[in-house]
Amino acid sequence: MLPPTISEISLATCLHFEISVSDLRGPSRERRFSRPRQIAMYLCYMLEAGKMAQIGRYIGYRDHTTVLHAIRTINQMLSYDRVVIEAIADIHILAARMVRTRQPDDLLDAVA
Question: Is residue 1 part of a domain?
Answer without folding.
Answer: no
